[in-house]
User: Fold this.
Amino acid sequence: MSTILVTGGAGFIGSHTCLVLLEAGHDLVVIDNLCNSSEESLRRVEGLSDKSFVFEKIDLLDQPALEQVFVTHSIDAVIHFAGLKAVGESVEDPLWYWRNNVAGTLNLVDAMNRADVRDLVFSSSSTVYGMPEELPVTEAHPLGPVSPYGKTKLAVEDLLRDVAASKPGWRVALLRYFNPVGAHPSGEIGEDPTGIPNNLMPFVMQVAVGRRERVAVFGSDYDTPDGTGIRDYIHVMDLAEGHLAAVERLERFEGCEAVNLGTGQGYSVLDVVRAASGAAGREIPYELVPRRPGDVAAVWSDPGLAKAKLGWQALRGLDEMCRDSWHFQSRNPHGFAKT
Ligand code: NAD
Ligand code: UD1
Assistant:
């Protein structure tokens, strides 16, 4: 068992991964500046796991504080979630995104290097592929992100490829997530976006719980069976287990390598609205509106490499994703610390 530093551990994917890591017997040091999360998620992780861990409120841009973490604790590996992730926000304020996501990671890798810690799992995104040229998307697909957010993810991937190639010993897994949704089945932790959700599932859930009137379905004239966009939604617990598999199998990574985390199965926007209506036991109203600029018709992953390399595959389907999202939303209609 090892001691794992989790950056951004209070966030959506981080909190679920912390729980899975604790349950697998790992010790954790969690850092987060709480810019998009609440410490309440970590308290709930402690409650669910019946285990405690170190939490320090640290910003990745605070280099001395970051260095100190590696002095105070004997860290074996790092899982790096901390980052900003809203596409629209990144278009409005690219400097903020580049500073936070890229300079923040530079500080982290610097601190790891100094402390001789060379095992890293990084949260990348399927957004690095840009417009899909072929489906399903394999790791060999050309890279070409469109948004500043996506470009920061690719820049960090490039940084890590360079660092890993510079000297032996680095073992870096770049995990490219498709569309994470769902929540822990307890309904205790889940996704709690601030403001109006950009992503489909949290929006659908806020309509289901009565916080918003109806879902705007962006585009119904795509070249897909029902005309709406198709994505590879993946349950956050599958994703969390994918991180456990990656951090425990870093010996299979020489240098730096990218792996898709998806199900390989695409669902349309209307499939999601229907499944969510079933989970919530009520019809979720929607209206068809024009396409959202920048969206693609369909994208889903080839999850084959993850299975071969990590011995991991997603197990949970769309109904389970909606059931667990609804469970969290209905128990926490206004999210963490606001109930
Ligand atoms: P999230 O916003 O819930 O979690 C990110 C966490 O990082 C938050 O708790 C935030 O407070 C923290 N953070 C941000 N900047 C920080 C900084 N400078 N210092 C310390 N902490 C900082 O997001 P999430 O959905 O859990 O995503 C986690 C990671 O996965 C992100 O890097 C994101 O880009 C990536 N990702 C997410 C998705 C998705 O759809 N959720 C898809 C692909 C990739
Ligand atoms: C978006 C980001 C992507 C990021 C991903 C996960 C864009 C262009 N892309 O991807 O970079 O990695 O989130 O965080 O923002 N939809 C609606 N109504 C809504 C919201 C969404 O119909 O209110 C549709 C979209 O058109 C799309 C699908 O639902 O077809 C999924 O959308 P979303 O959850 O935002 O994810 P992506 O667009 O795949």
Q: What stands out?
A: The pocket of uridine-diphosphate-N-acetylglucosamine (ligand 2) is lined by residues 85, 87, 125, 127, 149-150, 179, 198-200, 203, 215-219, 229, 231, 269, 292, 294-295 (CB under 6 Å).
